[in-house]
Design goal:
This protein has 189 residues and is α+β, with helices and mostly antiparallel strands. It has 7 helices and 9 strands; from the N terminus they run E-E-E-E-H-E-E-H-H-H-E-H-H-E-E-H. The longest helix is centred in the middle third of the chain and has 27 residues.
């Protein structure tokens, strides 16, 4: 656990290596995974900039290397180097785009199949490391994927099997390869 939702934001964390899940929890204990963080992501930025509590929790999914920058050091760094302020704005804009994409996926896709298809396509772009082949390592369980797609674990398992039988995806260990992005995009609407 790197930080917890509601904890006072005292630092930002630069992800150097590894992968983390970022999630929020309802009062009833229901967990919603907001997104996956990967190398290059800066965690806790909006909370540190707003001098507020962390809005989400961050937990590693594999061995991870982080650089911790305290709130006072980060603010001083921004004042000393104005280009850091520009980059900070870009990171906040990217975070906003991720949140918007998640809201669009959950609210506008009428089917679980469409939400899961969009999630897989988004991950292939984000986690594929720029490879021409749409391949990424899946470090979430079906339950966690269901949380992100707004459906049940059983539905995720059934849909992944259906996508595999239909030659839309291939699963190789913990990797997923998108074989037919056009058809998945059609499901995603």
């Amino acid at each position: 656990m790197v930080f917890k939702e509601g904890q006072s934001a005292d630092a930002v964390y630069l992800v150097c290596d590894g992968q983390l899940k970022l999630y929020t929890t309802s009062r009833e204990g229901r967990v919603m995974i907001v997104r996956l963080a990967r190398p290059g992501n800066l965690l806790g930025l909006s909370a540190v900039m707003d001098r507020a509590d962390y809005e989400i929790s961050a937990e590693t999914l594999m061995p991870t290397i982080l650089r911790r920058i305290t709130q006072p050091d980060f603010v001083e760094f921004q004042y000393k180097y104005p280009e850091v302020g520009r980059h900070t704005s870009e990171v906040l804009a990217k975070d906003y785009r991720y949140i918007f994409q998640d809201a669009r996926r959950l609210a506008l896709s009428g089917s679980a199949s469409g939400r899961l298809a969009r999630l897989l396509l988004d991950w292939s772009e984000e986690l594929g490391n720029g490879c021409p082949e749409l391949r990424f390592k899946m470090s979430l369980t079906h339950e966690e994927m269901a949380s992100m797609a707004g459906t049940s674990r059983e539905t995720v398992t059934r849909l992944l099997n259906r996508y595999e039988r239909g030659k839309l995806i291939a699963r190789e260990g913990s990797s997923i390869v998108i074989l037919n992005p056009g058809q998945l995009d059609a499901f995603a609407g």
